[in-house]
Amino acid sequence: MTFPPPLGCKWTGSEILPRVWRFGWIGSPAIAVFAVIFATPTAADDTRYLDALRGLDQAAEVAFAPHNEKRTGHLLRHKDELIAAYPNGEGDIVTRRHRVAGKWSLTTNVTEAALRREGEVWDMPRLVAGPDGNPWLVYRSEVRRRLFFHRWLGEQWGPRLDGPAIHDVNPQITGEFEEELRPIREYIVEGSRVQDAILVRLVSEDEPSLETVATIPMIPLTANPTARFLFIDDRHVASVQGAVWTPHASRRHASNPVLTQNPNPEAADTVRIFNRGSVRIEDGRFRMWYTATETGMPGGVDRAGPNWQSLMHVCYAESTDGIHWQRPELGLVEFRGSKRNNIVPELLRIPTVFYDDLEPDPDRRYKSWEIASASRSSQPESGDLMTSADGIHWRKSPAPRSYPGVRPWFVEYHNVFRDDREDDPQRRWKAYGSFGTGPRWRTCHLSTSPDGVYWTGYLENPVIDPLRGAGHCIHDLIVWQEADCYVGLVQVGDEYHNYEWELVVSRDGVHFSYVVDGLKFISRAPPGHWDHGGLQASRPVRVGDKWWFYYGAYESPWTTYPQDESAIFKTRMSCGIARLDVGRYAGFRTSDDAQDGMLTTRPISVSFDRKLALTLNAFIPEGYRVRVAVLDAQSNHPLAGFSLHDCIATTRDGVSTAIHWKNHALVWLRKSKSIRLKFELSGTDCELFGFGWEATH
Question: Which residues are CB-contacts of 505 (< 8 A; sequence separation ≥ 6)?
Fold first, then answer.
């Protein structure tokens, strides 16, 4: 299978490099410039790749003429520079830049810090001019069977974005299926200003081959009274000078653990606390629904029941501060001869509690979505919707599920919410969680619903597959909306299924990318700590300007897989809190060798005439400052009264700090007049996490 070439192009071969494009435009010769470029001495490990580039024909040389910004797969003309990309001898992708009549820059190893799977190398690099005006670098992992992307930010390549793959599902007669990614033989990548996206076409190595067409759309930046934008990736950034993108992990609360095993040996939560759970804040009261595990037989004699799920119960707790918890005696179910317990009898194993403030029936405002039963024989199509007026007394009703794409082995809903930004009313509700492809294989799914009752699995499930990251396996997925993103936690485990949590992000709720592959957002503690074993988690709760992530943790890790079921009833699990300031998953920080940093956004569109306040989410150490200029998007010149010199520098750390100028407290936005924002960070360790717009009265 061969690709049709881009318009005006045709293929040419090379024994050393993968296929490159030969361009047929007619223009001013650039042979002299080309000769200067490749006459420059290079490092020894680059020699054979630059030798191969030297062999490009004259048609490619014409494409490098100053008036032309077209490119081959490995070379890109951008402004007054050429950029070259190629794999080195260690399986990394490296780039070099060259100014006309200048010298090659030092090698930039783009993938050096990336974690690798066994035997993994990065190859087949391509450079493409993006519709945003920035160069994009694309390359393949043959082991992970997908593409990855980086954007050029003027001084550095931005963080990696996960790209597309070729999916192929093979159902088995047993009901299991092998969710496979097909090996990528070739691909074409183009930047389209018409579609405002990166366009990708992939062809597999199969005979007959499979093809996939995908788009990586640009993310629109708009000014409206409720808009918030995060630098959790680089999608909103046009250029950066003197600053580096820096990801962050959560931090444990000093009071951990905040809920431990019930000291009463006859209680339902004597072994494991918060295997999964939900936490809400209502009128200053913290409410927790958590899954707990009993010891088994009365008197604490351990036994293996019909299965481990049969010894799990949903329990309820309350707190005034989220740290000190009480177990109220609900008196709803008899357990071991007594009703003096905190068991919520109707909820089963995974309490995904959601409060629906738009529900007209007050008896149905609390909602929770369950599997059909707590046994392994449950069918994925037969889900249940639990509803309640108070979160304590629940009623069950059917919540049918259909799977037009792949029927999974089983499905669990770990987080459900109503997506008010969704344009399609049939997809207004979203559910994320574990998607079983067999008894031991797990991926992550998305299901959607118009009403929270009838659910449909996403046609191309799973939305996150085990090959995407460097981890051995994945399990749960928890997603929430924040600013302009869908932020998520994916459970990543080692070979024994000791799980930690990594951060993912999506702009559409479907296509996710690891913020940093391998960076543990909620991590296991060192030996000797209460949370040294595998972790469970839940959707975060906002407390002031911080997110609180309640999580459960085993006291020790598993050392075999599958685990000995009797150990499940012996290994204790407690509940703690991990915290992070709102929106501060990643940001641009002044680099170690620079006192000042500059960041300029992509154009921000405006659809009305109105004044809005600009706010920042920024960490500003004492004695340092941040200033902001508002630029005309076309000329890049400051609007009158909104230059950096006009800005009253802010020196206050905050997640939503208002910016003022000498003669303006608000930004006067004009319809159809796009702007950019230019941020100046002055001082070591200043960090910018995002910005937003607010209406004033």
Answer: 232, 233, 485, 486, 487, 488, 512, 513, 515, 585
Written as one letter, the residue type at 603 is P
Q: Are 416 and 409 in contact (CB under 8 A)?
A: no
* Cα-based angle 426, 394, 294 (whole degrees, multiple of 5): 115
Whether residue 549 is predicted with pLDDT greater than 80 in this model: the reply is: yes
Handedness of CA 481, 483, 485, 488 (dihedral sign): negative
What Cα–Cα distance (Å) separates residue 198 from each residue in 179, 234, 607?
A: 26, 15, 25
Please state the φ and ψ torsions of residue 249, each to the nearest 5 degrees: -110, 165
Rounded to 5 degrees, φ, ψ at 76 are -140, 130
Amino acid at 152: W
Please give the domain boundaries of the chain with CATH numbers for all domains.
9-218 (no CATH), 242-248+586-694 (2.60.120), 251-256+355-581 (2.115.10.20)
Residue by residue, DSSP assigns 313-366 as EEEEEEESSSSSEE------S-BTTB--S-B-TT--S----EE-TT-SSGGGSE
pLDDT > 50? residue 430: yes
Burial class (CB in 10 A: 0-12, 13-18, 19+), 518: middle
d(CA 679, CA 615): 12
Measuring CA to CA, how many Å separate 397 from each of 275, 384, 567? 25, 6, 35
Q: Residue 653's CB: how many other CB atoms inside 10 A?
A: 17
Give the bridge partners for 636, in sequence order: none
Instruction: Check if the beta carbon of residue 152 is closer than 8 Å to that of residue 137.
Output: yes
Q: Which two tokens stand for residue 560?
A: 């075999």
Instruction: Write down the pLDDT at residue 560.
Output: 87
Mean pLDDT of the chain: 85
Calculate Rg over the CA atoms of the chain.
27
pTM, 2 dp: 0.88
Q: In the predicted model, is pLDDT for residue 575 greater than 70?
A: yes
List beta partners, residue 152: 157
364 by Cβ neighbours in 10 Å (0-12 / 13-18 / 19+) ranks as: middle
Q: What is the pLDDT of residues 605-639, one digit of tens each?
A: 998 999 999 999 999 999 999 999 999 999 999 99
Distance separating alpha carbons of residues 56 and 73, to the nearest angstrom: 11
Q: What is the largest CA-CA distance in the chain?
A: 92
Cβ neighbours, 10 Å, residue 270: 20
Q: What is the mean pLDDT of residues 208-224?
A: 93
Q: For strand 455-457 and strand 394-402, is the pairing parallel, antiparallel, or unpaired?
A: parallel
Collapse the DSSP code of 53 into the 3-class scheme (helix H, G, I; strand E, B; otherwise coil) and give the result.
helix
Confidence of residue 375 (pLDDT cuts 50, 70, 90): very low
The tens digit of pLDDT for each residue in 90-117 reads 899 999 988 766 778 888 999 999 999 9
Closest to 260 measured CA to CA, from 247, 275, 270: 270
Residue 151 has pLDDT above 50, yes or no: yes
Cβ contact 74:20 at 8 Å: yes
SS3 at position 143: coil
**pLDDT value at residue 586:** 98
According to DSSP, residue 375 is labeled: S
Residue 79's contacts (CB-CB under 8 Å, 6 or more residues apart) are none
Residue 136 scores a pLDDT above 60: yes
From the list 439, 501, 505, 494, the residue with the least C-alpha distance to 472 is 494
